[in-house]
Design brief:
The protein is of the alpha/beta class. Helix 2 crosses helix 10, helix 5 crosses helix 10 and helix 8 crosses helix 10.
Length: 459
Amino acid sequence: MEKTVWEKYEEEGLNKISEFAEDYRLFLSASKTEREFTENARKAAEECGFADLNSLSGPLKAGDRVYAVNRNKNICLFVIGRKPLTCGMNILGAHIDSPRMDLKQHPLYEKDGIALFDTHYYGGIKKYQWVARPMALHGIVCLKDGTSVSIVIGEKDDDPVVGVTDLLIHLAAKQMQKKGSEVVEGEALNLTVGSIPAKTEDDKVKEPVKQYILDLLKERYGIEEEDFVSAEIEVVPAGPARDYGLDRSMIMGYGHDDRVCAYTSMRALFDTDAPERTSCCILVDKEEIGSVGATGMHSRWFEMVVTRMLGLNGQADLISLNDTFTNSKMLSSDVSAGYDPNYPEVNDPKNCAYFGKGIVFNKFTGARGKSGSNDANPEFIAEVRKAMELDDVMYQTSELGAVDVGGGGTIAYITAQLNMDVLDAGISVHNMHAPSEIVSKADVYEGYRAYKAFLKNIG
């Protein structure tokens, strides 16, 4: 069997793996929503000398470090290269949204003495995995006066948590006969949030437990029930990411898909100095539901940012924009399905990703007949191989499952529509889309090194 990343490094390299993985674990634990990731990325960028693109008026020079933020949900970072922007960029793109549950616009109700929040799940999930576990509330409530209230409940040691109840096994005979997709229905993903009735002399209060929760929200956050209409509150697993395995070789946490690729891409850009071609890292929202909306990859925002950059250098014309994208190269940084010895039948063992073997390149994703995939050109793949080998980066290639078993997609096909070369590249994951996903620390570090090598050696 081929060597792993663990066997590649001596003590100094192993220490770097541990240090980098710990930085990632802490960042992941503090970035459970796309808003949180964007804000933490912006702060980290400014600490690394990046300036807000919107604050600049003069031409961009080689070595300049700039960023742009879109609606607090996606961020684009650039290190300006020595060559003109029209010669193309080396781009790392990842998404920062993850499967979860969202509160509905009218979420709070009382039933049989229990107060509950009604939810709608986001992204592809096995619904039964999201019950009987502690959950936290993260989000923002926007008030009519223009102010906003940030909410994080369930992360501190003394915070309460919430959750979706499950049916006890003693009474679940009928439930256990259902298909996996029907064991828990979407409309049954209701959060238990309280059971104390409000003490009131007003007989008109028909839902006293609900009223008690409303009183708490009013007292602690200044929120009225009607404010949920303009709220965005996500329900995510409570607690930090943790070392996984007796040897601490892995990390278990919420949101590795795709924040593990987003973080490693961002760090690679931070550690890039004076490149030949402009280096870019774009982190987007909404990939898990089709990359839609103003903050998804289908948005024209990325083109607008690049147009603004060209404009600062006196080139805000369509030909310059087209040349910039046509000459650009991109790694669509998204996670890959790691081979799991508990479920070997879903993979072709010659063409799947293994823990500890480094970054994963997927020539195509999609499903059944490569439908919905980007299918990267072999000439570009050869360039990427050379870039990896120049920096002694371990890599592997994979498909997303055996033929006709399943499949999936990334943002690769969307950016390829701008006429640039794009290849899917990411870190393998176990438990993908579950509340707790798993990655190898060795792959996290080697992924970071791969992204650095791409930014440095392509073009």
